[in-house]
Known about the structure:
The chain has helices spanning about 15-20, 40-50, 65-80, 95-100, 120-130, 165-185, and strands at about 5-10, 30-35, 55, 85, 105-110, 135-140, 150-155, 195. It has about 200 residues and is α/β, with parallel strands linked by helices. Helix 1 links the parallel strand 1 (about 5-10) and strand 2 (about 30-35).
Amino acid sequence: MTKRVAILISGGGSNMVALAETMVGDHPARPVLVLSNDPEAGGLKKAQGLGIATVAVDHKPFGKDRASFETALSDALAAANPDIICLAGFMRILTPAFTAQWEGRMLNIHPSLLPKYKGLHTHARAIEAGDADHGCNVHEVTAALDDGPILGQARLPIRAGDTPDSLAARLLPLEHRLYPAVLRRFAAGSRERIDLQSEA
Ligand code: GAR
C-alpha cells in the first residue's frame, strides 16, 4: 500500500522538493502534507507549486511551551494521516513524548558525519576541526537530538579554502540524492544503509 509522507520544514525546503519530486511513478510513497513551524518559510510556496497540501504551525505563540506546540503539530498531522514523517531542515527540537509517538516512522537529515557535530553550525565546526571529510546522514529520529539508527550517509572531501557556505553549497546536492534514496528504500520496508561518496 502506498505510504503517506508528511514533510516538516523550517526554511527554503530544497530537501523537501527533492523528496517530493521523486515520489512519483512506482515510488512506494506520496507526499500528503508539508508543514512548517515558520509561516514565512519559502518551502511552503514551493510545496503549493508542486500541488502538495501545506500548513503552518507557528511555534512563536507557544513560547517555551513545547508540549502545546507539539499538540498543535500532532493535530495538523492527524488531519493528513501520514505513515512516515520526514524532517527536512525542521529546526525545532522535538520532545521525547513526540519522538516516541513516531519512533520507527520518522526520519531526519542532518548535515554532518554523525556522531560528529550534532546541533548547529556543522559546516563551520568540521572546517575548524581540520576534518578531511564532511557529509550528511539520514537517520531515524529518537529522543536524543540528531541521534538514532543511521540509514544513509553521504561524504565529500573538505577543500583547502572551504568556507562554511562553500561547503554547505557542495553538500546540498548530495543531501538531495541521499534523502530521496533512503526514503524510497525505507517506504518499501528496508532499513539497509545507503552510502554515497563525492570525489569533489
Ligand atoms: C539542510 O542542509 C539540512 O541538512 C539542514 O538544514 C538544511 C535545510 O535546507 N538540517 C539541519 O541542520 C537539521 N538539524 P533546505 O530547507 O533547503 O532543505
